[in-house]
Structure formats: C-alpha cells, structure tokens
Amino acid sequence: MRNNVSGGLPEYRILVDYERASRFGLSMSDIAQTIRIANNGLEASKWRDGEDEYDIVVRLREEDRQDLESLRNLNIRTMANTSVPLVSVATFEEGSGLGSITRLNLQRTATVEGQAAPGYSGPEVLARTQELLAEYQQNLPPGYSMEYTGESEDQEEAFGFLTTALMVGFALIFLVMLVKFNNIISPLIIMTAVGLSLLGVLLGLILTRTPFGLMTFIGIISLAGIVCVNNIVLMDYVKQLTEQGLKKKNAIIEAGLIRFRPVILTALTTILGLVPLTFGINIDFVEFFATFDPQFQLGSENTAFWGPMGIAIISGLTFATFLTLVVVPVLYSTFDSVSSRLAKLR
Known about the structure:
Elements: E1 2-3, E2 10-16, H1 18-23, H2 28-40, E3 42-49, E4 52-58, H3 68-72, E5 75-77, E6 83-85, H4 86-89, E7 90-96, E8 103-104, E9 107-108, E10 112-113, H5 122-138, H6 151-181, H7 185-208, H8 214-243, H9 248-258, H10 260-279, E11 281-282, H11 285-291, E12 297-298, H12 303-345
Antiparallel strand pairs: 1-10, 2-7, 3-4, 5-6, 8-9, 11-12
Helix pairs in contact: 6-7, 6-8, 7-8, 7-12, 8-9, 8-10, 8-12, 9-12, 10-12
C-alpha cells in the first residue's frame, strides 16, 4: 500500500547573521559558496581515459562533512585572507522542508493505493475496506470527504453500462417474444421466470460466500439469455400443440414431457462446461497419455476472476431449470384460467 501524501524532507537550515558577517567582510555569496563546495564539491578539472571523460570534483573529506558538528567548525576565508568559523556568523536549525500538495479538480487530495493480495479479488478487498472505514467516514471533520476511486470507480461505471445493456436487452427480447407469441401472457411469464432465476444466483453467492462483482453481473446477463431460450422452447411447443387442437392443460403436460430432455441437456452441458473454469480444474492430457500422470490441479489464479461468473450461471441455471419445468407451466395454466374467466364475465 502506498500514498501520495508528501511530507517535507528533514533538513538543516543555516541562518546567517548579516550584521556579524559584514563585520568580517563576508557576503552571503561567500558563505553559501563555501558551504556548497565543502559538501557538494567543485569541479576543478576533467580527466580523460581514452574516449571516457571523468569530472574531477574537489570537496572536504567524508569525516569532515558527515555530521552537523563538522559543518559548524567549517572555516570561511575572508577578503583579508583570514579564516572565520561558520558558527561565528550563523546559527543552525533542524527542521523539515516543504511538502508537495496534490490537487484534483482544484481540491486538495490525498490518494491511498493498494493491490489485492494473492488469493483475494479486488471486490473482496474493497468490501472489507469499506466496512472498516465506514465509521471513520461518517465522523470526518467538516470540509473533508472520502471517495473510492480506481478499480472501484471503474467497476461502478461498468455496472452502470451493464445495467443499461441488461434493460435494453430485456426490452428487445420482450418485443421479439411479443411478435412470436402474438400475446402478452407468454412473454410476461418468461420474463418472470428470468427474474425469479436471480434467487438462485443470490443463493449460490450466499452459499459460496462469493461477493457480488462485475463478473457476477456478466454471468447474470449470460444466464438471462439461456433461461429465455429454454422457456421459449417450452412455450412455443405449447402454442403449437394448442393450435393443433389440444386443450391447454393437455398441451402443457405434453410439452413438458417432450421438452424435458432438451431443457435438461441444455442446462447440464452449460453447467458441466463451466465447472472447470469456475473451480480451476486443470488436467494435463499430454502427460496423461504419455506417462499416465494427469497432474490434476484444483484451483488457480484465474479462479478469483472467472469463479463469480461461473457460480452465478451454475446456481442460477440450476434454479431456473426447475422454474422452466415446474413453475412456468403452472404460471401459464393460472394465467390462462384467469383470462378465460375474465372473458366469460364480459
């Protein structure tokens, strides 16, 4: 962890007594130049070695300039060719120099940065940090504020974009289904099933103690597409059977039996395909066929990145499969019964 708060570096200040220095015939330039040459040195000449050139710098020995006491005893040559100790014309003060001020949008800003430790994701660290600083943030003095930027700010922007994309996607899907089924009941039932599938996502996140992050949101968007496809397959077949003359109840039962296998296979292939990515399962097939040593590995560095997305899809799709095969037919039958009764009342 690091920050950009810059305090002044420690320094020695030499305060010259102008009146006393003038009595010895010394000027500020004489004193400053002597101190600079004694500590930093003066380039006296250059030495060449073939094509290389080196500066020859003259300054005091290290033992004569290694502490403040040595500097106090530094002699300054006057115009009268006499030596005056520096301590006779100056006093010494220990302090610190000026620090730098960082501004953002004309406001003084202190930035604290840090990286997530191995095995931890950025959202986990951010959530823990916000929890620890919540009370401190509430009791800040007037004129002070605290904001989370960097990856947190980028994540908030990404969440805003993905939320907009999800809403637009739902609207387009709803319009397509509206044209497909030529009624509003079937699209509403399917969109309800998509919304209820989020309960499975939340349950999976709670059981695995996975924080809700950007990859989880991407997983929800992917889940919504899969759930819509499975439900459209079921509802479309119900519509086909109804148009062939079957009663609504018989059509729902027949569609559930016929479409049971495609829906289950779709869910299983998706879930099983995501298991290696979610849990970091790695098998070396080359070594397995060569030496019968698969070098099986569970967990990897990428698990912290891809794991939340996989958990969201796996848990949500597992719950959504139950919704597709059980809850959606029940909802369709209920809506159909209610609409039939309303039609009779008219």
